[in-house]
Write a structure and sequence with these properties.
Low-confidence stretches: none
Radius of gyration: 19 Å
Largest sheet: 5 strands, antiparallel
Strand content: 25-35%
Number of strands: 8
Distance between the termini: 71 Å
Number of helices: 2
Mean pLDDT: 88
Structural class: alpha+beta
Length: 128
């Protein structure tokens, strides 16, 4: 009896870990296949930000369910040569969206809407 319980617990743990890895892999692929929005330049034209919408459609029903529990969008800031400076893609603890409030620049600060109001970064790379 004791062995059967241990076996069942080990199988449940293995299934949970496997499912988590599969869902995380789908999330990574959806972010890699994200649809970019238009470039939003700062006032000095030294940096720009792009809003990306993760693409869960290729993953069918599992993708639709995962989309329900994921960020609506994420934000990436680049310098004027196209080098990535900052990304909010892996901020899982923060719900990010772009349909109600637009992200914005304020000097060298990039602000994007999140569940806590506005989040963002001060980017010294974006000075003149």
């Amino acid at each position: 009896m004791h062995r059967a319980i241990k076996l069942i617990l080990k199988m449940a743990l293995w299934c949970s870990i496997s499912l988590s890895l599969i869902l995380f892999s789908i999330k990574i692929l959806a972010y890699m296949k994200a649809t970019p929005g238009e470039k939003m330049w700062n006032e000095n034209n030294t940096c720009y930000a792009i809003t990306y919408i993760p693409n869960y459609k290729p993953f069918g029903g599992v993708g639709r369910i995962l989309h329900l529990f994921s960020n609506q969008s994420f934000f990436v800031v680049y310098d004027n040569t196209g080098k990535k400076i900052k990304s909010s893609a892996w901020y899982f603890w923060q719900y990010q969206f772009s349909d109600l409030v637009a992200p914005e620049w304020s000097g060298i600060d990039f602000l994007y809407p999140s569940d806590s109001g506005f989040s963002g970064w001060t980017l010294s790379e974006c000075k003149k």
